[in-house]
Structures are given as C-alpha cells and as structure tokens.
Design goal:
about 160 residues, eight-stranded antiparallel barrel, alpha+beta, about 40% strand, about 25% helix
C-alpha cells in the first residue's frame, strides 16, 4: 500500500467524526424559555391607544374614540399554559380564591408564534407573534393587528 491509499480512509474517518460531532450539537436543543406556567396580563394596548394613527376629525369622533377606550377595561386575566398544549384563561377577582370566565383552549407554540386553536376542529382562531420571552416576561402582538400587544408576567406557583 502506498501513502495515498492510507490517507484516503483516514480522511473519511475524520470527515465522519466531524459530521457526527456537528450532527450531535445540532440535535441538542438550546436552553430555550418555556411558555408553560401561569401568566398574568399586566398591560394591554389596542389600536385605539395610538392617537397618531387615528384620523379623528371634529365631527364628534373624538367622543366616540374616548367612549370605546373607556369600555375596554383592564381585567386581571390569567393564562395557564400546560405542557400538553392545552391551557385555561380566567379572570381573577381581588381577594377571592375563585376565578370567573374560565375558558379552556388549545395552543401551539413554534418558537416565534403562538397560535390559539379551536378545541373541536383544531383550527387556528387567533395568532400572536412572540416579541419577547425572557425570564418572567412575555410580550405578544396580534398577527392581524400588530398595534395590539399584550404584556404578561409569570406567576410563581
């Protein structure tokens, strides 16, 4: 055997080992934040909050806009996202252990988008872009209305 034929199998072994190492690091998931847990809504903005984007004329439209803003009251909304892609939304009442307006749902999270699904048909009923998911904070914006955002903080169990 000459030197050329000895080097070729050695190159193949090295290339195979490098490919295995690269493949191994690609399959190890990065430490990602999890959506699983309880999240409380602390701030919600709507498209009505952006007064510059609204073309309010003097014909009483400002009164209508102010009335719509006043009706969009804030409530202590709590989302509980479970690891089986199901969740529950409810509203907490101050100094009460019970919640009201409980509603269960399914969700799908792909790392950048959060989709809420219909329980029976499993079709997407609402989609949000995850703007920030760090530590105890979650900021999402509605895909169809980017001016609507929701800010959540994680509730410790």
């Amino acid at each position: 055997m000459d030197a050329k034929t000895n080097i070729r199998p050695m190159k193949l072994v090295i290339v195979f080992c490098l490919a295995c190492l690269c493949g191994l690091t690609a399959t190890v998931p990065a430490q990602a934040q999890s959506l699983i847990g309880k999240w409380q809504l602390v701030k919600q903005t709507s498209c009505l909050d952006d007064d510059d984007a609204l073309a309010v004329d003097e014909l009483g439209m400002q009164e209508v806009v102010d009335d719509m803003k006043s009706r969009a009251g804030s409530s202590a909304q709590v989302l509980q996202l479970k690891d089986n892609n199901s969740g529950e939304e409810n509203t907490r009442i101050i100094s009460r252990k019970k919640t009201y307006n409980s509603r269960s749902f399914l969700y799908k999270y792909d790392g950048t988008s959060l989709h809420f699904l219909d329980k029976k048909s499993r079709t997407i009923i609402e989609s949000f872009t995850v703007e920030k998911l760090e530590g105890d904070s979650l900021i999402i914006s509605n895909v169809s209305r980017a001016c609507e955002t929701k800010v959540f903080v994680r509730i410790k169990p």
